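Q: What does the predicted 3D structure of CRISPR type III A-associated protein Csm5 look like?
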Amino acid sequence: MNSPTVLDFKLEVVTSIHVWDGERRLIGLDVVPLKSEACIVDIEKIDVNKIGVVPSSYQKFEESVRNWIETGIMDCSRKIPLNATPRKAEEVKLLPPLYIPASSLKGYIRTALLYHLLMEAASTQGKQAVASLLLKLVKLSSKPEVMDREVESVFMARPRFGKQGGSVDMLQQLHLAEPKAIKASSSINRAVVIDVNGNLVADPLLEVLLPGSTLEYQIRIPPLVSQNSVRIRGKDAGTLSQIIQLYNNLTPQLLSKALSEFGRAQLEHELDRVKKVSQSLASKGFDLSAYKDVLELLASDKCIPVRLGFATSHVSKTILLAVDQVAPNLSQQVRSTMSKHVGRTWDELTFKLVNMDRRWLGLGWAKLCTT
């Protein structure tokens, strides 16, 4: 019996990455600034017997928490370098214990595969044929999260047998282990979201995984299945054949090619955006020349560029780049529909940046290298 293919990857952070752990925390309550560090406080573990009466006002509580920490009555669950000046009761988003969980990378892999399959279909069948297919499959009247579900179904799923219902997914048997941190460091920084004219849109406080941090992932891809290894006759034979073909399509070569194509398409797209506005943004105090240099260096690297996490862009989380190339009219309709759903312009009119060592760099960039 054939064994699964095991691929070992190292993900090295190039700019900085934030993946939110889903917990809402406030400065002065859950996160207490201590000079150059932030103390993460687990409120639920406060020992009332040690601290006595809990202060009723927010301001006194913050002062008390700082005093409890400094006197040793309360411990920090962890301390994080603080590279920003927090505001009173400001929300801060922290990283999960695994930094970039396997689920985040697997979701990215799914998007990369769908991008590749769409572009491959456009190359072999023609853009017009694929554009017509997309116009039928994309449901603009649906909720945003299910708008492209039928596109995934056609390219990455097959129906189950008979009355079982549902479908079999291409990534169903792919196993991605949780990462092992080879080297990881983080800090709390203030990110900025600016529009193309340099106007500040938002400035969230984020814990980011810093450049040079390295995580190791292991991917297991099941072996190829022989059509003769499972014998089913009758009406289910065709269904089985389609399922086996779907599983056998997922090879290490396809995975590597899809990730590379998707990553480099994003990289080229972001470089083009930076070049168009770099001069005007520099006049507003946002010099993106270092960001441009980092992106160009990443483009020349042998490893695969990836963009993960919070505040990256629509193109890193959707197949919008493929739709732009194959069906530009549909792309405009999607943008218009999404703008109505979210109540603001759904487009790439902003840059999400973090100042790292006096250099403005975009969030989310890393490189994936096979070991």
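A (community wiki): The structure tokens above were generated from the sequence. Residues 5-21+95-370 form one domain. The two ends are 25 Å apart (CA to CA).
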